[in-house]
Amino acid sequence: MGGTMALLPPFIRAPRTSRAARTTAAPHPGAGLPADDEVLLDVPDDRLGPALVAAGRGSYEPAAALLTRTRERAEWEYRDRYVTRLASFAHSRTEWFEEWRAAAPRDPDLLLVSAQLAVDRAWLSPARAELLREVSPLITAAAQSDHGDPVPWRIALDHARGARAGHKYFGELWEAAVRRAPHHYGCHVAAKRYLAESWHGSHRECFDFADRAAQDAPAGSLVQALPARAAFAYLTDGCGPEVPRERLDSAADRAMALSARFPSLDPWPAEIRNLLVYVLVRLGRLDDALVQLLLIGPYATSFPWNRLSDDPLGHFLAVREAVYTGRAVPEPWQPRKGHGDRAHPDDH
Questions:
Q1: In terms of pLDDT, which residue wins out, 20 or 65?
Q2: Do 109 and 228 share a domain, yes or no?
Q3: Which of 110, 177, 281, 284 could be a cystine partner for 153, CB 3.0 to 4.6 Å?
Q4: CA–CA distance from 169 to each of 165, 172, 175, 342 (Å)?
């Protein structure tokens, strides 16, 4: 991999969509789509929801019990997503988290949320690389608290990318991660994003990595969506050698096959389906995009729409309306400045 790559094209900022425009634009029930005002953003599943409600009331015990169950049952994909959401909640509502830390400072689940929260906070700072280096001991503590858990290693991979770690060190982290969970989606997304940033514009190499991982993974693994992530990075970049259309279609087809394995109207696969809608619309496959919108139902997700707009829900609804009516799909398709595929540590 290597070579000099062109700079990103100018970023385009999306116009915000007003609440009034959202609620009057699209009465969809006849098509099997919920009305605009019934669509919600980033809805937690039935296990995470009660934990977040309790945390909002100042109680950490349900969150702690939820993460303990995921660890004991080796539910690593759920654990990764729950840790990310709980850390995000702790970033804005700290009381329950501070109480948990005071009550059980060596709890492996507390240590994991602490590491994710520290990375998230450092990532937002202009001094990101320097602050991330100070976070390393927290990630080490989380990894040492449970040697079989791959999620601390996903956090370590994100951390290494933000700290601009060298390829050798990143490779060591990657080997440690896949020893624990060979097909963990979050670790694969972190590795793909590191490749994309280290060799900017090398989309074919990122596709090679994503395709190999998907081919090796079970049919029901979230890793089957990794090529669609590579397609998203390519379609939002506009940089580097052209990727053949058939490769983009193949990535979308693989993600569609994964989507079909999950129930409709389910918040768990909603992010993958939202991502897939973006890719399908960019490829002009509007009928396939409508199928995914029907499967999504009321479950919009911030990613990928928050890379395009300050109002991700409004942008999702505008795209949905365009797909349903056959009108021109709204711009922009390029990420906003600072919000590209390489700008966030945790959207997996």
A1: 65
A2: no
A3: 177
A4: 7, 5, 10, 19
